[in-house]
Amino acid sequence: MTLPEQHPLHGRTADAPLIRAYRGQRPATTPVWFQRQAGRSLPEYRDLRTGTRMLDACLDPDLVTEITLQPVRRHGVDAAIFFSDIVVPLKVAGVDVDIVPGKGPVIEHPIRTAADVAALRERTLDDLTPITTAVQRLTAELGSTPLIGFAGAPFTLAAYLVEGGPSKDQLAARTLMHAQPEVWADLMTWLADLTGEFLHAQVMAGASAAQLFDSWAGGLSLADYQAHVAPYSARALRQVRGLDVPTVHFGVGTGHLLGAMHEVGVDVVGVDWRTPLDQAAAAIPGVPLQGNIDPALLAAPWEALTAHTADVLAAGRAAPAHVLNLGHGVPPTTDPDVLTRLVAWVHQQ
Ligand code: CP3
User: Which of 80, 155, 224, 270 could, after both became Cys, cross-link 250 (CB 3.0–4.6 A)?
Assistant: First the structure.
């Protein structure tokens, strides 16, 4: 029997509260981190990023290392999330993608036809050295604090590629799915392999957990998700199966998809702020959960924020283990001191 591949550094974080919770063993203190904790809510991030485009920053190991560590130092969170973006593998594969401040990923030539997809499928990940170098530096610096690697799920990436940028309801992507199912399948297969390779590279370089972001999956019906999306997310995740790292799957507005999102083969499901965690736990019993403070509460009075967080912690007890997080990302206007105070407050509960 061959043993699964393992990175020697994974052992260093095996007893970290985050990893124990991801494995379903409820630690004494609830671990906490914030989606988008590395970024514009931090003045030290804005200083470092001055004059550097987002995607250039993501491919600079020095910047990635420093930006990833900033929120860990400042807030004392239980995990670092790798500073990158879901479109970085597309960029590394040579797709003409950019991240426009205040807007998000923009694709110069949207993918709409069989010929567009065929051309895309010629592309492979060119060089992941900037990514693996940054992960190696980070895991060395972080010691027993886990680094979470991540990737965008095939559907969310397809939505950007087909729409050409952010969209309200992913109408063009959902149309392609039904109008040209073979073209859709080819596009999603290519994306699944790209995403899987990106995750695999991070884990093999030392990341202790891997999160798949299917941010826009909530716009799909359960039937469409199961038929046209879930098989490709499962295909991506197979590349990190057996590597001894827990996996997390998150989407926004996915209350109706939680069971299907778990079934693609992950250990933990991330829940947005719309679905109370006890309701999520009833939908997927026995599954550790991550979430789901409403980001809007970060700008509300402290008493309102802590009362809401206490409710989230109480509802999270319905799951075998709970990692506290936001129901989506940190808004750029957030006062970072609120996050620092909240981490300390959660650790005292
Ligand atoms: O702390 C972290 O979470 C680490 C890094 C991270 C970023 N993007 C950095 C970033 C992560 C995990 C992401 C994932 C990501 N990127 C997702 C999935 C999570 C989610 O929010 O649903 C998505 C959909 C994207 C695509 C994307 N990239 C959007 C929608 C935006 C915002 C555009 C804007 O300017 O408002 C980005 C840009 C981005 N990604 C920034 C950061 C720090 C801001 C860029 C900047 O600082 O100029």
Answer: 270
Upper half-sphere CA count for residue 119 (Cβ side, 13 Å): 11
Residue 122 belongs to some domain of the structure? yes
| Strand order from edge to edge, sheet including 80-81 | 80-81, 147-152, 209-213, 247-250, 268-270, 289-293, 322-326
- Nearest CA-CA partner of 216 in 159, 165, 175, 164: 159
Confidence of residue 11 (pLDDT cuts 50, 70, 90): confident
What CATH code is carried by the domain that includes residue 271?
3.20.20.210
Mean local confidence (pLDDT), 8-26? 92
Give me the number of domains the chain comprises. 1
Q: What is the mean pLDDT of residues 16-28?
A: 97
**Is residue 104 within 6 Å of ligand 1 at its C-beta?**
yes
User: Which is the catalytic residue, given 22, 45, 85, 193?
Assistant: 85
Looking from the CA of 231 toward its CB, the CA atoms found within 13 Å total: 11
Q: At what angle do helices 181-204 and 154-163 cross, to 10 degrees?
A: 120
